[in-house]
Amino acid sequence: MIGIKNLKLRYGEKVIFEDESLVIGARDRIALVGSNGAGKSTLLKLMLDEVEYDSGEIERPDYVTFGYLPQDGIEVRGRSLYKEVETAFDGALELQAKIAEADERLGEMDTSSEEYYDLIDTIGGWEHQLEDYEPEKMKSKIERVLMGLGFSASDFERDTGEFSGGWQMRIALAKLLLKQPSLLLLDEPTNHLDIIAQAWFEDYLKRYEGAIMVISHDRAFLDAVTDRTLHLSLGKITSYKGNYSFYEKESQARLDALRKSKSNQEKEIQRQKDFINRFRSNQKKASMVQSRIKALDKVELVELPKTERKIYFRFPEPPPSSQKVIELIKLHKYYGDIKVFENFDFHIDKGDRIAVVGVNGAGKSTLARVLAGIEPFQEGERKVGMNTVLAYFAQQQAEELDPKNTVLEEVEAAAAESGHEDTNPRAILGALLFRKDDVFKSTTVLSGGERNRLALAKILTKRANTIILDEPTNHLDIRSKETLQDAIREFAGTIILVSHDRDFLDPLVNKVLEVRKDGTRLLTCNVSEYLERLQKEQGIPS
Question: Mean pLDDT in the chain?
Fold first, then answer.
């Protein structure tokens, strides 16, 4: 369907693509993986003809249509949600308008004229084109996609300008899915989806008729929807015929085989060198020595690919905790006329590891703030255990960075405040993508994502026995998430995690608190088991 031949692209000294070729088939489900800055988003933009390349060729047949979802930055306003999403069917709506106008003209024309019959033929062609859109199903398709992505029927007539950034991206995604392009190019599409909408989205993509290329740091999502993986590294594209888990195993197997080959080669080279050194002065074997010297000069050495060193860190040792950590009794929480919690009872015991899940807007982050003691409530009681020491991360904490500090100074100050001398600020910063000179940046020049990661790094230095983390994996790549996951797994205290990343959550939690707009429930399971239970309750076949 799409062919890339001998693609070359450099930005100064940095090689993005070095003579790379690639073919994308009509039904491919491709995961695009690699470290930050490897060129993943650039490859999508190259296919859209939005980025110039140095040399090579990209073949895009005329019949191929593209649908692109960037990470963020899309905003619409001035139309109702339904009318905005309906623009995905502009082609069908234009045909319907043309047919209606032509029908009116027919009523005014001489039925015996040649022009009359020509117009009838033209209308027949338009009607045939319209059948491809299945106009009788447009309304149901729009409603199904909007509801699947988390909108309610009451949202349909709201102006799109009323929706926040995350919901704006859902509007853009809804339009893309309804347009059904030949190739969907998706850059971190699950960033703005809650765990319920993500499950629906995965199912939709599994049944999608066209091709898909997706960049994501959610490995469970990649495993569910892709069957081919392209790894971008140091200007090279390596293809694997499987999902992300297959890629991980296969790339490790290839690396192990390469290491073995290198080891064998080194042994053989040493054997030849030993022979040369042993018989260098032997006239009878001079020709053999020279022959082996020449052979060694021609040997193409096996080179191992450069790999990033995995950074390891752990949370400070938690202080002793009482059995009762936090208890909420008959809690009432409202925002104006909007009820978030009413008569809500909830308790957290020592050693609990709880995932807080649910649709966006149900109150997950509000609950995290109430538990952390920074969100007021109207009625009820919040009791904290005598020895409970809390650490809380939320993205708005990124706004509280000291503008006088560098990145490293900010974390060093947090570590000093925690009183834990064994904390390694550089290791934590490295795990959260602050590498080399990044640690000397002023906090005033950081991007939004960098500020969030720095705020998370500060929390990781605090000596607490109860940690509340609200969406801690945003802006982290897969390797960084694995490092954070390892640290949480080894943490001996109590953990409350608000997240929609089930691959991150599953090994860490033993309970799931489902927060709905009509109530809550606590289940003893991990997130994948919770989703399976939800599917059975909704009558959805697994």
Answer: 89
Contact call for residues 177 and 197 (beta carbons, < 8 A): no
Residue 292 backbone zone (phi > 0: left; psi -120 to 50: alpha; other: beta): alpha
Amino acid at residue number 104 = E
What value does the mean pLDDT take over residues 409-428?
82
> pLDDT tens digits, residue range 431-455?
888 888 889 999 998 877 788 888 8
Amino acid letter, residue 329: I
CA 285 to chain centre: 63
- Asked if 338 and 481 touch (Cβ cutoff 8 Å), the reply is no
State the Cα–Cα distance between residues 167 and 142, nearest whole angstrom.
16
What's the gap between Cα 210 and its chain centre?
21
Model-level pTM? 0.80
Give burial (CB, 10 Å; 0-12/13-18/19+) of 128.
exposed
- Cα–Cα distance for residue pair 514/239, rounded to 1 Å: 39
Note whether 357 and 364 are within 8 A (CB). Answer: yes
Residue 348 φ then ψ, to 5°: -120, 125
Q: Which residues contact 261 (CB under 8 A, 6 or more apart)?
A: 302
Contacts of 94 (CB under 8 A, 6+ apart): none
C-beta of residue 197 within 8 angstroms of C-beta of residue 170: yes
Q: Which of 269, 228, 217 is nearest to 26 (CA)?
A: 228
Check if the beta carbon of residue 317 is closer than 8 Å to that of residue 463.
Answer: yes
| Beta carbons of 331 and 370 less than 8 angstroms apart | yes
Residue 441, pLDDT score: 92
CA angle 454, 459, 460 (to 5 degrees): 95
The token duo for 76 is 């619409």
Q: For residue 14, what pLDDT is reported?
A: 86
Cα separation values, 122 from 30, 68, 107, 116, 348, Å: 41, 33, 15, 10, 70
- Which tens digits make up the pLDDT trace of 81-120? 999 999 988 777 777 787 888 888 888 888 888 788 878 8
What's the pLDDT at 133?
66
Count of CB atoms situated within 10 Å of the CB of 236: 15
In 428-533, at which residue ranges do the beta strands (DSSP E only) sit?
466-470, 494-498, 511-516, 519-523
Identify the three-state secondary structure at position 27. coil
Neighbour tally for 263: CB within 10 Å: 11
For residue 95, what pLDDT is reported?
74
H helices of 38-151, in order, are 40-47, 81-86, 90-108, 114-133, 138-148
Burial of 248 (0-12, 13-18, 19+ CB in 10 A): middle
Q: How far apart are CA 7 and CA 58, in angstroms?
A: 8
The number of angstroms, rounded, from the C-alpha of 391 to the middle of its chain's C-alpha atoms is 26
Our separate counts of H helices and E strands in the chain read 17, 18
Residue 166: in which H helix or E strand, if any?
helix 165-179
- Quote the CA–CA distance of 170 and 88 in Å, as a whole number: 14
